[in-house]
Amino acid sequence: MDKIRILIADDHVVFRQGTRALLELEPDLEIVAEAGNGEEAERLATELNPDVAIIDIAMPGVDGISATKQIKKLCPNTNVLILSAYDNDQFVFRLMQAGASGYLLKSVHIRELISAIRAVSAGDSVLHPTIARKVIGRFVPSPDKPKENSKPGVLSPREIELLKLMGRGLNNKDISNELGISVRTVQSHLRKIFEKLSVNSRTEAVLYALKENWINLDDEPQPKHIDKSTVQS
Fold this sequence. Notes:
alpha/beta
């Protein structure tokens, strides 16, 4: 079994090393590098091309938001998982726009972090419940407001189908099985969707579709990693 190769970027040495020690107990996880700031994270990601980069927000020099944007630009196959103590709206939405695949708070249990790493590596999006409430609250239309019947003219029927499957929480392999196409074809469709919608991540693409009412949380199975029951209306 191929191991998930991980880069950890956090300026707190004790936290970084402690996280590494716990993750390395898992047989399918491998820490390939540690970084103490955003600039070092960018350099190591470019050199090593890890599967997952765990990035803190508040780091000296280049912060986590800038590092995420640069890593996604230089290493598009590296999935960025934010692990931070901050849940400020400005950080959440800027990181989603930068291309982060997940956002967890440092209060999570180690098992939740391990599960999130495996999920983003497989192409899923993962949001801490607190973050999910902020994201859904901003992008999903309120049931009290009239919904516009916006039509996704820029997207093909197949691309809308992919968005619906992503909204259900399916990763690239699951989507390929569902549609009977290769994973490479799924990835090609995703790149086109991102380009057409001017977004940088699966999460942002699904949120865009929710905002435009192309997909609906009420009539689609719920995403694996967003528990709607935790969202207060």
